[in-house]
Amino acid sequence: MSTLDWAALPVGEIAAAHPGATAVFRRFRIDFCCSGQRPLAEACAARGVSLDEVRQALEQLPQAVADVPQEPTELIEHILHRYHDVHRQQLPELIRLARKVEAVHDDHPEAPLGLAQYLEETQDELLAHMAKEEQVLFPLLAAGGAPMARHPIAAMRLEHDDHAVRLDNLRTLAHGLVLPAEACNSWRALYSGLQQFIDDLMQHIHLENNVLFPRFERA
């Protein structure tokens, strides 16, 4: 792997080809899902992180086969069960916890005020987005795709960009997911669950943008 020209490779391509790369990118806050077309050097510069540090972390990854289905129909099923179903479980609980934390700690300077409402809006948008994929795009792709598939794919990519902005806003409302020393168990559970949701949604978008969609866009 050290012979690769990491700097010139698109981050989405790296994430798709090298198991563990997504964890490296999350650690350095590099967007590998919606900005996956960016070369690694450009992505590092945009985030203000050292290209050498990221390259070193990538080169230390074990060379293994990603545990993700490669056949399109199986990949779609994986996305549906691992991400769509999971998001539908995650968000109601996150909303409940956020409401509780805001109600109990509304006078705390680091309380995530406004987070519950923003999570509700995020849930509405994500549910609508997933319904479009489940009812229109995925059946079309599972049937082999067609030239017309490029249009709903392009629409989903644009909505993925909106989701990425929402994730940044969630982090901001949650003060970077940094807990105050006196945070209660509900507050800790909220931030832990929110971090898991962010990681899951980023991986979900990555699999669609960088693995599933390109196969049909090239056809």
From TrEMBL:
The gene is ytfE. This is Iron-sulfur cluster repair protein YtfE. One of its GO terms (cellular component) is cytoplasm. Residues 77-215 form the Hemerythrin-like domain. GO terms for molecular function: metal ion binding. It comes from the Bacteria. It is found in: Cytoplasm. Gene3D superfamilies: nmb1532 protein domain like (1.20.120.520). It comes from Tepidimonas taiwanensis. Its main location: cytoplasm. Keywords: Cytoplasm, Iron, Metal-binding. CDD domains: Hr-like. InterPro entries: Hemerythrin-like, RIC_family. NCBIfam families: FeS_repair_RIC, PRK10992.1.
